[in-house]
Amino acid sequence: MSHAFDSARRKLERAGRHFSDLERAISEFTWKRPYEAVIEPHPTKNDHTVHKIRLTSTLPPIIADTCGEIVQGLRSSLDNATYAIAVAAGKTDPKHCAFPFARNRDQMANALGRAKDLPSEIQSLLVGFQPFIGGNDLLWSLNEMCNADKHRMVIPVGAPVQRTGVSIHGTGFFSMPDPHIWDREKNEMELFTLGPGATTNAHFELALSVAIQGVEIVDGKPVMQVLMPLGVLVERMLDTIEFESKRLGYVT
Q1: Alpha-carbon distance values, 88 to 24, 84, 97, 189 (Å)
Q2: What residues contact residue 86 under an 8 Å CB cut-off, 6+ apart?
Q3: Which pLDDT value is given to residue 153?
Q4: What is the pLDDT of residue 151?
Q5: What sign does the dihedral 126-127-132-133 (CA atoms) show?
Q6: How far apart are alpha carbons 170 and 217 in whole angstroms?
Q7: Which residues of the chain have pLDDT under 50?
Q8: What is the predicted pLDDT for the residue at 149?
Q9: pLDDT given for residue 1 in this prediction
Q10: pLDDT tens, 195-222?
Q11: What is the C-alpha to C-alpha distance for residues 139 and 146, in angstroms, rounded to an integer?
């Protein structure tokens, strides 16, 4: 026997199966340490050299694709749940039953226009999840990542290298950025600059990650640290939506 929330649960389960694939793909990429040290002449200072770390390979497309499948699955599971409630509440062809997201709390009333086919009690429940900036920021970012995936054909991710430790000894002119900043456009990071005749013995501890790029709230955060908590959050939300729908008598 089918259940009102079967489709939503299948979407969530399918998204969950992608997590192991994503984690494996990220591990395989980062384990290779696909970056190298480079030395270049300083662009404005004669006889100075700039020492950098630069990526030697791009992210495998499977990583961005899998991230996109996860966020679309999580987002779709919420829409499937709200659609099921609208039907159960008597709407034969609901057109306005999407899970509402808003830029901020003040815009939630307008956002609920996309969910006007839902019973008022369910609308209030959805608002209680606070899917806006300043409410549940992580939940709000789910919608933003889905929009990015739709508009750019792939969720924007990158592979920044971060400095986790450093030990340096030497003589002569030496300059080092603090903090070190990853250049997303060039896929590189300046480590330090040496002047004429300067010597150094430098040891940097570096960590490569795969991070969300260009999505507000989660920009620069490792994808697994964003998507895994989102999966847990959406599952809890579905549990709450199902419980309340049964309590209110819309589904059995």
Answers
A1: 40, 6, 12, 55
A2: 94, 97, 117, 118
A3: 45
A4: 52
A5: negative
A6: 40
A7: 1-2, 153
A8: 63
A9: 34
A10: 999 989 989 898 999 999 989 899 999 9
A11: 11
Token readout for 215 is 């999505």
Please give the full DSSP string across the chain, using - where no structure is assigned. ---TTHHHHHHHHHHHHHHHHHHHHHHHHHHT--EEEEEEE-SSSTT-EEEEEEESSPPPHHHHHHHHHHHHHHHHHHHHHHHHHHHHTT-SS-SS-PPP--SSGGGHHHHGGGGTTS-HHHHHHHHHT--STTS-HHHHHHHHHHHHHHHHSS--EE--EEEEEEEEEEES-EE--SS--EETTTTEEEEEEE-TT-EEEEEEEEEE--EE-S-TTTTTSBHHHHHHHHHHHHHHHHHHHHHHHHHTTS--
